[in-house]
Amino acid sequence: MKKALFFVLLFLVFLPSCNRNKTDELAPTSGKINTISVIIDDKLWDGEIGDSIRNKFASPVIGLPQEEPLFNINQYPLKLLEGFMNNCRNIIVIKKEAKNEFSIKENEFAKPQNVYYISGKNATTILDLIEKNAPEIISKIRKLEIQENQRHIDTLLFDFTKLEKQFKINLKIPREFKYASKKDKFVWLKKEITSGNTSILIYQLPLSVIETKPNVIDDIIKIRDSIGKLYIHGTSRRTKMITEAAYAPYLSYTVLDKRYAYETRGTWEMENDFMSGPFINYCIVDKPNKRILVVEGFCYAPSKEKRDLMFELEAIIKTIKFVKSSKTISKKK
Question: Which of 288, 286, 281 lies closest to 317, judged by CA?
Answer without folding.
Answer: 281
